[in-house]
């Protein structure tokens, strides 16, 4: 729900973290696709990357702003070469990575890869610990635009290091700094988007903007309703940390998951959009249903996500509304936009009819009449309140 009328947006006090990677990248939540949810290791190939780029064009996704084709874990061979370089798996990248980035760039799109702050990636491929500078040099030489950086096999008091360390030595911050510095060092040749994937450890939202452009604030979205509830509900409390240049990353969109029905998919997409999460499709575009396609092509919601103000919506409690329940999606959300306010009315627990008086909405707060537009149906209206259909 989007109300269209000039409102006082600047009244909201939002802390700003100075961005160390202030390189003009990530001023809006990034939009694109990632291979991981599609077929995990099997999708980390040139074939998937190029087929997805073609789909971005043929399905009209590129024109809507979907831009990054991101290959996740398992794209390299299991060991580095004798010079210590990462080696794209020849079975998955028969012509190397550069041939793929060149083609993707020629289509007006961008290309991303995945690495890890530990000595191995989560799936056991070479990590970048101790190789930060040379790995960034390789990414730059291939023309890579985006680097997701995970935190498996990181320094740990357990020996040997487990995939997921439960008694870490040091904080995630210290493991992410060398890569941030390597990216900064290469800045004159290529501006990379640095995506921190530390699953919300060490309250990454409080420092993420001084390290990268976006940061995962939770463990994975497993494609079920419990994940949408867990991640979506916890976005409310950290909304103030999202700003142009640094955004909470709620993880890939798991639309197309057999575990979500169409209403749950709508809520999933809408909530990620209004909380200014990156919109990264985690699905096989060859198999997408018409109903999912309609949701991911919702231009109104995409415009809200990409609005230049870049401030995330959070929950508000209208008079008489129940208290929020931890881990459940609260029905009432609002956030500032450059031309109004976005209001999210979420039937998070059960279907229902929700009403809101605009005077109770942060950023509106008076009894004037407002124009509104419902973003899924396109229905418009005006008045001092709105009720969902
Ligand atoms: C996880 C990460 C996932 C995916 C996977 C690859 O740690 O949260 O998004 O990247 O590793 O192994």
Specify Rg, calculated over alpha carbons: 21 Å
Query: Order of strands side by side in the largest beta sheet?
Result: 8-7-6-5-4-3-2-9
The kinds of small molecule bound in this structure are:
beta-D-galactopyranose
Architecture of the largest domain, CATH level 2? Alpha-Beta Barrel
What name goes with the CATH superfamily of the largest domain? Answer: Aldolase class I
Instruction: Specify the CATH class of the largest domain.
Output: Alpha Beta
User: What count of helical segments does DSSP give?
Assistant: 10
Spell the H/E element sequence.
EEHHHEHEHEHEEHEHEHHEEEEEEE
Backbone shape: globular
SS-derived structural category = alpha/beta
In total, how many domains does the architecture comprise? 2
Question: What's the end-to-end separation, in Å?
Answer: 12 Å
Structure characterization notes:
It is a single chain. By secondary structure, this protein is α/β, with parallel strands linked by helices. The protein folds into two domains: 3-15 and 313-388, no CATH class; 31-305, Aldolase class I (TIM Barrel). 24% of the residues lie in helices and 16% in strands. α8 packs parallel to α9 (290-296). Bound molecules: beta-D-galactopyranose. InterPro entries: Aldolase_TIM, GH, Glyco_hydro_27, Glyco_hydro_27/36_CS, Melibiase_C. It catalyses: Hydrolysis of terminal, non-reducing alpha-D-galactose residues in alpha-D-galactosides, including galactose oligosaccharides, galactomannans and galactolipids. Its EC number is 3.2.1.22. Keywords: Disulfide bond, Glycosidase, Hydrolase, Signal.
């Amino acid at each position: 729900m989007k109300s269209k009328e000039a409102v006082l947006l600047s009244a909201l006090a939002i802390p700003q973290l100075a961005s160390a990677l202030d390189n003009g990248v990530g001023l809006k939540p990034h939009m694109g696709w990632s291979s991981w949810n599609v077929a995990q290791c099997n999708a980390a190939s040139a074939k998937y990357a190029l087929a997805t780029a073609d789909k971005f064009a043929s399905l009209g996704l590129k024109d809507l702003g979907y831009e990054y084709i991101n290959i996740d874990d398992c794209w390299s061979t299991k060991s580095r070469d004798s010079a210590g370089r990462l080696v794209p798996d020849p079975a998955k990248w028969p012509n190397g990575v550069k041939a793929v980035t060149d083609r993707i760039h020629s289509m007006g799109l961008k290309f991303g890869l995945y690495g890890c702050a530990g000595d191995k990636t989560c799936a056991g491929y070479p990590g970048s610990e101790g190789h930060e500078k040379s790995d960034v040099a390789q990414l730059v030489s291939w023309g890579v635009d985006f680097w997701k950086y995970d935190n498996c096999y990181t320094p740990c008091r357990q020996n040997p290091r487990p995939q997921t360390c439960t008694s870490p030595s040091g904080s995630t911050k210290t493991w992410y700094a060398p890569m941030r510095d390597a990216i900064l060092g290469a800045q004159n040749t290529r501006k990379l988007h640095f995506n921190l994937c530390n699953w919300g450890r060490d309250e990454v939202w409080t420092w993420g903007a001084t390290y990268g452009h976006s940061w995962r604030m939770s463990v994975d979205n497993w494609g079920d309703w419990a994940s949408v509830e867990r991640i979506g509900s916890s976005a409310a409390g950290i909304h103030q940390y999202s700003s142009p240049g640094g955004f909470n990353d709620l993880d890939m969109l798991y639309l197309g998951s057999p575990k979500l029905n169409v209403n749950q998919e709508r809520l999933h997409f809408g909530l990620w959009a209004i909380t200014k999460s990156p919109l990264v499709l985690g699905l096989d575009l060859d198999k997408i249903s018409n109903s999912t396609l309609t949701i991911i092509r919702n231009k109104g919601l995409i415009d809200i996500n990409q609005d230049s103000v870049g401030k995330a919506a959070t929950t508000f409690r209208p008079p008489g509304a129940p208290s929020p329940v931890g881990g459940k999606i609260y029905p009432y959300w609002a956030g500032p936009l450059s031309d109004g306010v976005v209001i999210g009315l979420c039937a998070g627990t059960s279907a229902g009819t929700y009403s809101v008086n605009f005077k109770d909405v942060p950023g509106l707060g008076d009894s004037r009449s407002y124009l509104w537009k419902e973003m899924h149906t396109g229905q418009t209206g005006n008045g001092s309140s709105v009720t969902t259909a």
